[in-house]
Amino acid sequence: MARNGKEAMEEIGHVVPDAMILDLMMPEVDGFSVLRMIRSDEKTASLPVLILTAKHITKEELAFLKVNHIYQLIQKGDIGRTGLLSAVKAMVSGDRETKTKVAEKPPGHPVRGKPTVLIVEDNPDNMMTIKALLLDRYTVIEAADGMSGIQQARTQNPDLILLDISLPEMDGYQVLDTIRKEEALQHIPVIAITAKAMKGDREEILSHGFDGYLSKPVDGQLLETTIQRVLYGT
Ligand code: MN
């Protein structure tokens, strides 16, 4: 535990932890500075860092977090105790595997072209989080409600749709039904994203005809494997 950036750097100087949860808004040495220092030190360069913050994040700040390889960005209001625990568990257990995989991946990974992903999500913070996870590898299109999502799909012809279930006016189920009824759109795979992570939901959602299912907070590694499976059957 450290109550500010300065304390955090002192702690890390004694013992390098297996993972770190970092707030961005702190007096004097803020989270951005802590992250920069961690990444510039060989001992902590690959330390998994989960950003947990209430801060509204600008595009520039998001780019900075990406460049500095954060494990995940979580907005404080979006996560409960269980969600945070599972995020930390995934960070501690899965990260080494992720790194190896990334390292072993040859340059020029044989993906034909950059797939276009349409994200339909009404919560701007969640939108930003998902975008941050995708931006390097995918062309991202955004829609904040179901109707404009359908319109974007008609005009942009995305390779994949990530669809929030809980949307104003038209919910995700209605959006999916519309997509599946339209000849020009029905082939597009749709992955449901939902905040509800209760037992039985997964089956209920998949039985509706979605191609995949992700619960919030969206885990970066799971997002990628789900997209790969849906797009390429791998
Ligand atoms: Mn929503």
The N- and C-terminal alpha carbons lie at a distance of 40 Å
Mean pLDDT: 85
| Main β-sheet description | 5 strands, parallel
Overall 3D form = elongated
**Total strand segments:** 8
Q: What ligands does this structure carry?
A: manganese (II) ion
How are strands sequenced across the largest beta sheet?
5-4-6-7-8
Number of helices: 9
Structural class: alpha/beta
Radius of gyration: 19 Å
Strand content: 15-25%
Poorly predicted runs are 95-111
Q: What is the succession of H and E elements?
A: HEHEHEHEHEHEHEHEH
**What is the helix content?**
40-55%
Describe the structure in your own words.
The chain has 234 residues and is α/β, with parallel strands linked by helices. It is built from nine helices and eight strands. Helix 5 links the parallel strand 4 and strand 5. The radius of gyration is 19 Å and the shape is elongated.
Provide keyphrases for this structure.
5-stranded parallel beta sheet; 3-stranded parallel beta sheet
Topology:
Blueprint: H1 5-14, E1 20-22, H2 31-40, E2 49-53, H3 59-67, E3 72-75, H4 81-104, E4 116-120, H5 124-134, E5 139-143, H6 146-156, E6 160-164, H7 172-181, E7 190-194, H8 201-207, E8 212-215, H9 220-232
Parallel strand pairs: 1-2, 2-3, 4-5, 4-6, 6-7, 7-8
Helix pairs in contact: 1-2, 6-7
Bound molecules: manganese (II) ion.
Manganese (II) ion binds at residues 122-123, 164, 166-167.
